[in-house]
Structure formats: structure tokens, C-alpha cells
TrEMBL record:
<keyword id="KW-0963">Cytoplasm</keyword>
<keyword id="KW-0560">Oxidoreductase</keyword>
<dbReference type="Pfam" id="PF13911">
    <property type="entry name" value="AhpC-TSA_2"/>
</dbReference>
<dbReference type="GO" id="GO:0005737">
    <property type="term" value="C:cytoplasm"/>
</dbReference>
<dbReference type="GO" id="GO:0001516">
    <property type="term" value="P:prostaglandin biosynthetic process"/>
</dbReference>
<dbReference type="InterPro" id="IPR032801">
    <property type="entry name" value="PXL2A/B/C"/>
</dbReference>
<dbReference type="GO" id="GO:0047017">
    <property type="term" value="F:prostaglandin F synthase activity"/>
</dbReference>
<protein>
    <submittedName>
        <fullName>Prostamide/prostaglandin F synthase</fullName>
    </submittedName>
</protein>
């Protein structure tokens, strides 16, 4: 178990840390508003735990340490296209995201009732 309380890994990987001048406008930006509206429409529940100021991303790294895919969030509403992850891994197919209904939450975590289909 590795805990990075100082978030050094985020810094070294170039993941953006927001501040008061960048977070609030980003929260009201078009992409973030669209993402919030979509999650409300699909009844995706969740908590607001975590560090609101820290953006993340997605890294796909091969066994030799080479980055096959690097995606860094610029705003809170951005997410990597799952099809880009498949492509980076050399997996043929397409993920079609469907309306899965509300997440089912237990004491430890939330899960969607079904998974996206892979073709």
C-alpha cells in the first residue's frame, strides 16, 4: 500500500491541481455542466469525498514502462473515452455506453447494475 499524502506522483505526472481561480470557472464550464446534467439524468449517485482541487487522468503503461495512453483532465468534467483505452491496449472492439440506471451503493462502494457491452 502506497499513500502519497503530498501528491508528489500527481505533480510528477503533470496532473493539474486547481486553485480558486481555476476551479470555480471550470465547474461552470460547458463540459462540466454537460457531465453534471448527464449524471443527474442517469441518476448516478456518489459522494463528494476526495480532493476537489486535484484533477486526475488515465495512464496506460506497458510492462516496459512505456506510456501507451496519457490523458490528463484539464477540467473536472473531462474523462477519457473508454474506446481510446481499448485502442491503446490493442484490443479490438467498441464500448457503447448505455443508460444503466442508478448505481447500487453499499457500505463500502457503489456499482452499476450492469456493465457496458463490448462488441
Amino acid at each position: 500500500l502506497y499513500i502519497d499524502l503530498k501528491k508528489e506522483a500527481f505533480k510528477k505526472l503533470g496532473f493539474r491541481r486547481m486553485n480558486a481561480f481555476t476551479l470555480w470557472p471550470a465547474l461552470f464550464g460547458k463540459k462540466t455542466r454537460e457531465t453534471i446534467a448527464e449524471t443527474k439524468e442517469k441518476k448516478v449517485a456518489g459522494d463528494l469525498a476526495g480532493d476537489w482541487w486535484q484533477n486526475g487522468g488515465t495512464l496506460v503503461i506497458n510492462k516496459d514502462g512505456k506510456a501507451l495512453l496519457t490523458f490528463r483532465q484539464e477540467t473536472p468534467g473531462e474523462h477519457v473515452d473508454p474506446n481510446e483505452v481499448l485502442k491503446a491496449l490493442g484490443i479490438e472492439g467498441k464500448v457503447e455506453v448505455e443508460d444503466h440506471g442508478a448505481a447500487e451503493c453499499g457500505a463500502e462502494a457503489c456499482a452499476m447494475p450492469s456493465r457496458p457491452k463490448q462488441k
